[in-house]
Task: inverse folding
């Protein structure tokens, strides 16, 4: 078996360098732990960037994949797929939605949402209403449409011109959103909690006020729950916490417990705007990933798991607050459930590397916010272990 250094040397020759990779070569995972090819074990509080909500290789997801892999791997969407039907039924039964479109990623799901908004508006109001308003610091994916929607300039550098028809306003500012609405507006797209943008929680009442604006101006409300859906905030969907129903919701990341999948959820009436031939995805909703997703979602929705997410989220936040009292450069602890950000007055990147060297995986967003998104199955002992490592790392930065 090759060592980490040998794998990295091979990767450097032939794999495109679109990621700033750390020197870890992953071999296997179990629960909250990840092993590299050299046998070093890491406590994984990044969880594949909020993909492994059930931890690595959850037995129910693995069993669903094994069983389905022996029956049918792929089938064209020209035909009906039972596993896709069962997953769509489950998602509709447990959300506001009545129809589901399946794809492969969060960016694809958001592209579908933006197409649906424009197509619906075109049919209802004519071609002049096409503008989608999103928030500054938002992140909606890496495709050209998704980076046009994203409210961060860094993802657009070198790729301009962006697609026309996108406008950005400060997250949490209702009046700014009202002022941004014009006769050309057709939808507002928001993350209920901005993950990549710095773990920014929507202010109390904000999402409800945006719902009211959408109703007043006849705009679609799109919630991007790619990162914060599927139990991450302590409820199945983040929108439940504010009791605000969207018209469209996008999902991906944790939906299948690891295998790639994306989904757009919407109402019966709106779904009619994307009829046959208007949109599609070759691999979207194939039998293998849908079998995994149904197993994953049924497991995530178990009361004990969501209870654990809320309890361990509170415990992690409490431990981080204790560190905030110890280190003056920690400015704020914020988040919901098990997506928690630690805003620093110093650069966070070096701390991520030091934690990794000590066996703790986490990451840093917007330069100074440490992001913790451990699996929802995490326990107190694992959090204590992570906080001991983090304490050691923070001590080096004082």
Result:
């Amino acid at each position: 078996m090759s060592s980490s250094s040998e794998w990295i040397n091979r990767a450097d020759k032939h794999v495109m360098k679109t990621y700033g990779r750390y020197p870890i070569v992953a071999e296997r995972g179990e629960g909250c732990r990840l092993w590299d090819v050299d046998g070093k074990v890491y406590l994984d509080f990044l969880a594949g960037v909020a993909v492994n909500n059930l931890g690595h290789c959850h037995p129910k997801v693995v069993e669903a994949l094994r069983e389905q892999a022996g029956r049918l791997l792929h089938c064209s969407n020209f035909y009906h797929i039972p596993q896709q039907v069962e997953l769509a039924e489950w998602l509709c039964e447990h959300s506001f939605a009545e129809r589901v479109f399946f794809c492969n990623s969060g960016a694809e799901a958001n592209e579908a949402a933006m197409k649906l908004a424009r197509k619906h508006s075109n049919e209802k109001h004519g071609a002049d209403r096409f503008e989608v308003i999103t928030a500054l610091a938002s992140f909606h994916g890496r495709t050209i449409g998704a980076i046009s929607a994203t409210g961060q300039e860094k993802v657009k550098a070198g790729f301009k011109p962006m697609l026309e028809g996108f406008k950005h306003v400060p997250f949490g500012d209702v009046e700014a959103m009202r002022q941004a609405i014009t006769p050309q507006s057709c939808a507002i797209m928001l993350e209920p909690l901005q993950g990549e943008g710095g773990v920014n929680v929507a202010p109390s009442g904000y999402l409800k006020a945006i719902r009211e604006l959408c109703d007043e101006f006849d705009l679609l409300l799109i919630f991007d729950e790619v990162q914060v859906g599927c139990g991450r905030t302590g409820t199945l969907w983040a929108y439940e916490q504010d009791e605000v129903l969207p018209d469209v919701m996008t999902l991906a990341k944790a939906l299948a417990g690891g295998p790639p999948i994306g989904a757009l959820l919407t109402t019966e009436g709106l779904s009619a705007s994307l009829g046959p031939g208007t949109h599609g995805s070759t691999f979207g909703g194939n039998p293998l990933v849908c079998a995994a997703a149904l197993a994953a979602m049924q497991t995530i929705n178990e009361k004990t798991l969501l209870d654990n997410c809320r309890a361990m989220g509170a415990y992690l936040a409490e431990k981080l607050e204790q560190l905030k009292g110890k280190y003056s450069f920690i400015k704020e602890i914020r988040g919901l459930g098990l997506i928690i950000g630690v805003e620093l007055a110093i650069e966070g990147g070096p701390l991520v590397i030091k934690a990794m060297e000590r066996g703790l995986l986490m990451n840093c967003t917007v330069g100074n916010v440490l992001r913790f998104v451990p699996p929802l199955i995490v326990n107190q002992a694992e959090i204590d272990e992570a906080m001991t490592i983090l304490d050691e790392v923070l001590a080096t930065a004082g």
Notes: The mean pLDDT is 97.
